[in-house]
Amino acid sequence: MKRKTKLIHGGISSDPHTGAVSVPIYQVSTYKQEGVGGHKGFEYSRTGNPTRQALEELIKDIEGGTAGFAFGSGMAAITAVMMLFNKGDHVIMTDDVYGGTFRVMSKVLNRFGIESTFVDTSNPKNIHSEIRENTKALYLETPTNPLLKITDIEAASSLAKENGLLTIVDNTFSTPYWQNPIELGADIVLHSATKYIGGHSDVVAGLVVVNTEKLAQDLHFVQNSTGGVLGPQDSWLLMRGIKTLGIRMEETEENTAAIVNFLNQHPSVKKVFYPGLENHPNHEIAKKQARGFGGMVSFDVGSGEKADHLLSKIHYFTLAESLGAVESLISVPARMTHASIPAERRAELGITEGLVRISVGLEDVEDLIEDLRKALE
Ligand SMILES: *Cc1c(COP(=O)(O)O)cnc(C)c1O
């Protein structure tokens, strides 16, 4: 099955009981048993729900793993994956991970004895030198947020394997349509499905796919024990979103290429960060491991005041956190998505006050470029 077909016919694509071509929303918490233990595969909806199961089967097929899991948010998904580890275990992570990921590792999970070290994983040498006796996993985000740095998933996961570490990849920015980390050697891939997978700014959700039976059993145990599951209504919304993921990503790619080309030539723009640019330091790796470069672009206008001026003039780009929806969004990472990262750490990472991040949506690209042109004047 080719990729666009799989988005529509993968998983359980219709209701086995009625033939309905969209899996129904099973808005139910418990299931009648014919005798004690005599159930039809479902006992209680935290453990399993048919709508959520259809979504979990679908994301498993799309990412090419053994089992899929749906959670109430991307952070719930990340936290559940981290609960596969024990007190005293150590995880090496990409330094400019999503702000919430940095926060949960450094302010919550550290209290339970899970240690983490943040390094620039775009250079594999940095990973190697951080491996300790108690290191259990390598956690990558690629491309990163907001500087669009790229880690070579194949090289990093083979280094991890040689050292007995699991490789976990946050694939939110690329989406399973453009990039499949399991095919590149990762053991676990996860998503904030709130972004491109949902795609319409109407649901908060997280998805995980694992590539062994053992990981599937362990993660199901954590999911059922800790209970951060996605509800049936939201599971259905994600399946609806996934059906158009392919065409949304193709169109996003075209719009983004035109906008990047415009920004790159604009005199008020100091620097453009986009993996599709030939001068991006990891352009070749991005081209090798992903089929598209995505719809996230960051650019530096030089100062916080200039960024504010741009925001006050912009029209079609909605000032909001988040990304990956049909409507174009704009944000200033230093004061929004990355505000939970201490100022000095932000400076180290290169997240300047004048850095503006856009998530390119599906409006007419001529309107989007005209909007940026006027706001940059
Ligand atoms: C948004 C996001 C998350 C967190 O997901 P939520 O659904 O907001 O909990 C994690 N990783 C990345 C890359 C994100 O963009």
Features:
37% helix; alpha/beta; single chain; 12 strands; 377 residues; 5-stranded mixed beta sheet; binds pyridoxal-5'-phosphate; Aspartate Aminotransferase, domain 2; 14 helices; Aspartate Aminotransferase, domain 1; 7-stranded mixed beta sheet; globular
Overall geometric form: globular
Through-space gap between termini: 48 Å
Low-confidence stretches: none
| Strands side by side in the biggest sheet | 1-7-6-5-4-2-3
What amount of the residues lies in strands? 5-15%
Helix content: 25-40%
- Average pLDDT, to the nearest integer? 95
Q: Structural class from helices and strands?
A: alpha/beta
> What letter string, H or E per element, gives the SSE order?
HHEHEHEHEHEHEEHHHEHEHEEHEH
Using the coordinates above, name the CATH class of the largest domain. Answer: Alpha Beta
Give me the CATH architecture of the largest domain, please: 3-Layer(aba) Sandwich
Radius of gyration: 21 Å
